[in-house]
Every structure is written in C-alpha cells, then in structure tokens.
Amino acid sequence: METVMERECSALGGLFQTVIGDMKGGYPVWDDFISKATKLQSQLRTTVVAVAAFLDAFQKVADLATSSRGGTRDIGSALTRMCMRHRSIEARLRQFSLVFLDCLINPLQEQMEEWKRAANTLDKDHAKEYKKARQEIKKRSSDTLKLQKKAKKADVFGRGDLQPQLDSAMQDISDKYLLLEETEKQAVRKALVEERSRFCCFVSMLRPVVDEEMSMLGEITHLQTLTDDLKALTMDPHKLPASSEQVIVDLKGSECTWSYQTPPSSPSTTVSRKSSMCSSLNSVNSSDSRSSGSHCHSPTSHFRYRASSSSSSSVLPQQTPARLSSVSSHDSGFMSQDAFQSKSPSPMPPENLQ
Amino acid sequence: METVMERECSALGGLFQTVIGDMKGGYPVWDDFISKATKLQSQLRTTVVAVAAFLDAFQKVADLATSSRGGTRDIGSALTRMCMRHRSIEARLRQFSLVFLDCLINPLQEQMEEWKRAANTLDKDHAKEYKKARQEIKKRSSDTLKLQKKAKKADVFGRGDLQPQLDSAMQDISDKYLLLEETEKQAVRKALVEERSRFCCFVSMLRPVVDEEMSMLGEITHLQTLTDDLKALTMDPHKLPASSEQVIVDLKGSECTWSYQTPPSSPSTTVSRKSSMCSSLNSVNSSDSRSSGSHCHSPTSHFRYRASSSSSSSVLPQQTPARLSSVSSHDSGFMSQDAFQSKSPSPMPPENLQ
User: Fold this and answer.
1) What are the Polar residues biased-composition ranges (chains A, B) (predicted)?
2) Could you tell me which of A283, A338, B74, B104 has the fewest CB atoms within 10 Å of its CB?
3) Is A297 helix (H, G, I), strand (E, B) or coil?
4) Is the Cβ of A40 closer than 8 Å to some Cβ of chain B?
C-alpha cells in the first residue's frame, strides 16, 4: 500500500515542480513579449507623428480645393471632413499607444518581479514541507520495519503482544501519507492558481488596450459616408457644378472685376511672375483678414455656402458646426482675395484704348 | 459700349489667369503632400514589421497558456484566437501601406508632371489667342476712329454717305468683342474644369486607400467577441476550471506518473536546474512530434478538447477550424511532453525506500 501512496505523493510533487518549472521557464517568453511590445509602442508613437504631419499636408490640399475660384469648393469641404475624421483616428492612435504603455507594458514589467518572488516562495515552501513530511514518513517507516523484525522474532516466543503496536504504526504511516497527499494536492492547486492568475492578470492588462483599439473602429465607420460623398462629388470631372458657372455669370454684373494682365513675351518669366503674384495672393489668404473693405462677392459666396450646406447636412449632421466654420473662414479668405485683386492697378486700363 | 465689353473681357481674362495661377501656386502643396505621405508610408511599413514581431511574441504567450498543465488551456485558446485576428489586422495594415504607395503616392507624383504640362499649355494657348483677338480689335478700333474723323469732315460737304460704313465697322467691333467674351468664357471654363479634374483625380486615388483602411475595420469588429470571451474566462483568477481539477484526479489512476525530483540544497542552483529542464521540455514541445509512443494522457486531453470546443463554438463558429488545429497541435505537444516526462529517470525511485 505504501508503495502506491508513495508513488502518488511523488507524482503530485513532480506535477507541482513541473508547474513551477513551467512558470519559471515562461520568463523569457514574457521578457520577449515586453521587449517586442516596447518596440511596437515606440513605433506607434513615431507613426502618430507621421500621421499628424501627413494630415497637415492633407488639410492644405483640402484648403486648396476650398479656396479655389468656385469649381472645387464642394470637394474641398468633403476633403476637410475626411481630414477631420482622420484627426480623430490620429487622436485615438495616440491614445492607443499611451494605453499600450501605461496599461500593459509598464504594469506587466512590474508584475513580473512579483511573479518571480511568488514562484520562488511557493517552490521553497513546498520543498521544505515536502522534505519534512517525507523524512518523518521515512523515519516512521524504518521504525515500523524494525518493529516488524522485532515482531517476527517475538513470534517464536509470544506472538500477539506486538501486533497492536505494529498495526498502530502502520495506520500512522498511512495517515501521514494521506495527509501528505492532501498537502501536495493543495500545493498543486496553489501552483495552478498562481499560473492561471498570471494569465488572468495579463488578460486584464490587455483588455484596455483592445478596448482602445476597438474605439478606433468607431472613427473608421464614419469614413464610409465621407468616401461616398467624395465619390458622388467627383463622379464627372469634366462637368462644372452650378456654382462654377455662377462665378462667370457674377463677373458680368459685378462692380469689382478681375483684369487681364498682359504676360511678357518670354514664357519663362511669365511663370515666375505669375507665381510671385500667386504667393502674394496666398499670403493675403493665409492671413485670413476679415476686415477687408470691399465685399463685392458676398452674395455669390453666401449662395454657394448655403447650397453646399443644405446638400450634405442630411448626410452628416454631426459634422455641420465644424465644417461650417471651416467654410466660413475660407469664405472670408475668398473675399479678402477678391478685395486684393480689385484694388490692384491694371497694367492695361480699359480707358487707354478709346 | 466698347468700354464695358472691354472691361468684361479683361475681367474674364484676369479670372482665367488667377485660376491658372492658383493651380501653379498649388504645386508646393501637392509636393508637401507627397513628401509627408511618403514618410508616413515608410513609417507604416516599419510598423507592420514591429506588429509582426509583437504578434510572434504574443503567440508565444498564448502557447505558454495553452501548453500549461491544464489550468490555462482555455485562456490559451482564447489568446490564440485574439492573436490570429490581429494577424489579419497586420495583413490588412501591410496591404494598406502597399495601396497607399501604389494607388496614391506613386500615381500622384506621375500625375503632377502631367498637370504642370497641361496648365502651361492652357496658359500659353490662352495668352496667344487673347493677344491676337485684342490686337485685331485694337486695329479695327483705330480704323473706326479714323473713319469717324473722316465722317465728321465729310459731314460738312455731303453727310450720309459714310454712315453705313461706320455703322458696319462699329457692328464688326461689337461682334468681335462678343466673340472674344465667349472665347474667354470657354477658356475660364476650361481652366476651372482642369482645376476640378485635379481634385477629382486626387479623390479617385484616395478612395482605394480609404477602402483599404475601412477593410481593417472588418477585422477589428471581431475583437469584441474575443475580448468578451477572455473577460469571461479570467473573471475569477483564483478559481480553477474543472479541467484543472481533472489533472489532479487523472494523476491518481494514471499509469505514467510524474515524480518528485529532490531539489539540491542551494536555492540558486535549483532555479538554473529547473530552467534547463524546462528548456529541454520546451524544445520537445516546439518540435511538436506527433509520433510519441506513449499516449497515456490521451483520454484527458480529448475530454478537455471536446469541452472547450462545445463551450465556445456557439460564440465564434467561423473560428472553429483554425482553433481546433491549434488546439490539437498543442494536444500533441502536450502528449509528447508527458511521454518525455514519464520516460525520464526519477532520481528518487519509489522502490528505494521499502
């Protein structure tokens, strides 16, 4: 009987050791995880910076479309909405990389020290208890062996008088084995709980990261309507919208008109002269002066503003306030350009002919 | 009359020049966009590499849980599913960075050369035509002026005979102005269409990128059920699942048992000895031999396999085939470890006591 019980206790002890060994053998895996997560996190951080710079450039393209002479204002507004949605995605990505560090990488690194201490304590305590129990059983066993020999010798003279003592000793060993088995089972359970709680702890650290990841999804879902808007607006690149034709019509009745600037004969200087004119226009536009005196184009730009607002507000009502402010700021930029243009002296005034 | 028409034609010519100027002034904006997009794309490419390395490390953590002695196999399976879903996200991210380069950055760069050529051609053609038309009108105007003077002088002698000629000349100038106005309107429309078609072209290049971005969303949506699974599994870290208790129960009736290995007295060598034992266990596990002779733990592992399959197959049926293969490969790994463990000579065989 003792051989079977001995084997079972040893098996439980072996299982305990293997579980502890597994935990200790897992440290390089956890270390590798922390190292790769740290690298990914720093990569995400620099990606966020690149995304921010990209979106700045994207917004400038959208502004280019919005501040044009009337042919692409609608596309500019849609591109601005697309850009703003990506700003939200950028913010989520930034938040994601922060949570990745603060909720997973750093706490896991701290937790690992705790894990190492806990496993060592479990192992040491178990080894001490197991050794003590086994030594006690061993001593009782050899005592019982001696008692058995004594009983065999005593058998010749007066048999039955050592049997109760022998039975009691055997029972004692059996009880001690049962106790050891129960202790070992508890130790195995403790080790399994320790092992499981590590993964539970890991999952609890992982969850806010995945939550943050999923909240990026909330931003991405809105992209569908935005890309549909853009598709509809750019369906036919060679058809001008009504607002573009309006620019030509408005020009006729307007008091402040553009005037043709005779280009010099050399084509190369034409380009440089034009571009310098454009850069001065752009500088006026970027200063975004709302105090320009002449507001001759106001009716037209208001017409356009209302038209674009009513056509797309039903699709994305939550975007309306932000988009309106962007459009109105460009309206002001548009007007200040007109004012600048109307004030510039014409190199070929209409009066010089007749 | 001519003064008004002159002014209107000049205004249209000025508008044309401004639209062309806007397009030319936009080149630095497009260049900046391409530059920032290129930087972001290369950043995304290195991020994909970091994600792949991170997921390798993540999978090893999942394997650690799956290949444990029974306490965390369920968590390991859920972590493996989480990891596999992120592999799909990684693949989408890789695809996204490719599409970003192939569908947006490279074509846009090529398109810009085309845009520059087109704007220069528009500008040159317009300047030539405008100049020619204006010179012709100027000549007719001065001819008409001479005719008017002649008519005034002729008025003294015989009045009416030059009037029809004068009327015809005036009508001719008026017609020429109307023609110029129409030509200028067409030129402005052409310029506006050219400007608009650039943004349409840009949007058409942007769309596959946004589509790819949104298809990442399809992968992310599945994360919710996976994180819910993990949350449910790790709700109580200190409660062992039935399968863990089964490991202890199975140990009793099993033919091939673990055995306790007496640790040496020094605690430091204990750790190094354990970890070397574990690494040899891991190497057996990673070789994933399915041809291990001893299959003593088969019934237990099959029980666990069926239990975990039925408990979560209703939640994620589409994941079943992949997960099953992962679990079964780990079952095989688990068994080969058992075989290894049962074959290892015990330093304290149960026979050496009694």
Assistant:
1) 315-345
2) A283
3) coil
4) yes
Mean pLDDT, chain B, whole residue set: 75
List the single residue in B with minimal CA-CA distance to A63: B29
Q: Which amino acid is at B252?
A: K
> A106 CB contacts (<8 Å, ≥6 apart)?
none
Residue B56: how many CA atoms within 13 Å on its side-chain side?
10
pLDDT band (50, 70, 90) for residue A46: very high
In chain B the domains, ranked by start, together with CATH numbers, are 2-221 (1.20.1270.60), 242-252+278-342 (no CATH)
The answer to whether the CB atoms of B346 and A18 lie below 8 A apart is no
> Does A1 contact chain B (CB < 8 Å)?
no
**Cβ pair A215, A92 in contact under 8 A:** yes
What does DSSP assign to residue A68? S
Q: CA–CA separation, B152 vs B159, rounded Å?
A: 8
- The gap between the terminal CA atoms of chain B, to the nearest Å, is 130
Integer Cα distance of B200 and A78 in angstroms: 12
User: What CA–CA distance (Å, rounded) separates B66 from A22?
Assistant: 12
Determine, for residues A58 and B33 on separate chains, whether the beta-carbon distance falls below 8 Å. Answer: yes
Residue B233 contacts by C-beta under 8 Å, 6 or more apart in sequence? A203, B74, B75, B78
ipTM of the complex as predicted = 0.72
Minimum mean pLDDT range among A154-163, A305-314, B130-139, B229-238: A305-314
Interface touch A20/B274, C-beta < 8 Å: yes
Rounded CA gap, B271 and B275, in Å?
6
Residue A90 sits at the chain B interface (C-beta within 8 Å): no
Q: A213 to chain B: which residues are within 8 Å by CB?
A: 220, 223
Average pLDDT over residues B166-184: 89
Nearest CA in chain B to A283: B25
| Cβ contact B257:A12 at 8 Å | no
Across the interface, whether the CB atoms of B79 and A43 are under 8 A apart is answered no
Q: Is B188 within 8 Å of chain A by CB?
A: yes
Assess B13–A contact: CB distance below 8 Å, yes or no. Answer: yes
Taking Cα atoms as reference points, which of A265, A258, A254, A274 lies closest to residue A350? A258
* Interface check A3 vs B, CB under 8 A: yes
B241 has pLDDT over 70: yes
Say if A272 is an interface residue toward chain B (CB within 8 Å): no
CB pairs under 8 A between A and B: 384
**Shortest CA distance to B88 belongs to which of B267, B338, B318?**
B318
